[in-house]
Amino acid sequence: MAGGLEPALAALRRELGGPALLSVLIALLAVALTFLVWRFVQGRRSSRKAVLLLGLCDAGKTLLFARLLSGRYRDTQTSITDSSATYRLSHDKSTNVTLIDLPGHESLRLQFLERFKAAARAIVFVVDSVAFQREVKDVAEFLYQVLVDGTVLRNAPALLIACNKQDVTMAKSAKLIQQQLEKELNTLRVTRSAAPTTLDSSGGPAQLGKKGKDFDFSQLPMKVEFVECSARGSKGEEGDADLEGLEKWLAKVA
């Protein structure tokens, strides 16, 4: 087949004035195709405007949601449905994303994730930094289910682990939480390697991280960052929340 193509290519070179011009045309075609692919990817990303707030019950998601939208403290209770609102950047009111607070109850969280995951531009996974040592296995289990989901892997939304309740003395640092989560996720990966699970029933088994290496967050297809924050704030109801790191991250992904 290659031999049959040579005469055609030689004739095309003669018509176009030689190999140099043909090379230029091929290069221009490659650039055009790259641009079209880039536009397609950007178009898909721009259609995803949601930032999902995930986490276990009592991690502080709903108070974070309220503080980001109004800046004010309010009493919250365990959510049994989703809440959504438009979040506008403080320095650019024309730029916005849709914040969606999803229930953290074990019997509800996966069905709500299933409903909204395709629209996610980014995910904020909220961790209770005070109760983390006690809840680490449950936190890692939920995060594992998110990370091996087929839709999440394909879309690779930016992921922020928000280490909440840093106003409390016993709160664990973001660095320790990252280390412990990587260790627990690695254990889950090993124990489930014989029969990995995904939330996307149409896809095949998902592999978390790189085979043969201990898991760390840098192995994921999406960018993962950690911030320390406090929805309550050091002065409680009367003071401001400490959300500077979270707000800067939202400005980057909006």
From TrEMBL:
It comes from Sclerurus mexicanus (tawny-throated leaftosser). The chain crosses the membrane at residues 20-38. PROSITE patterns: ARF. It holds the Pfam family SRPRB. Belongs to the SRP receptor beta subunit family. Residues 192-212 are annotated as: Disordered. The gene is Srprb. This is Signal recognition particle receptor subunit beta. GO terms for molecular function: GTP binding. It is a single-pass membrane protein. Keywords: Endoplasmic reticulum, GTP-binding, Membrane, Nucleotide-binding, Receptor, Transmembrane, Transmembrane helix.
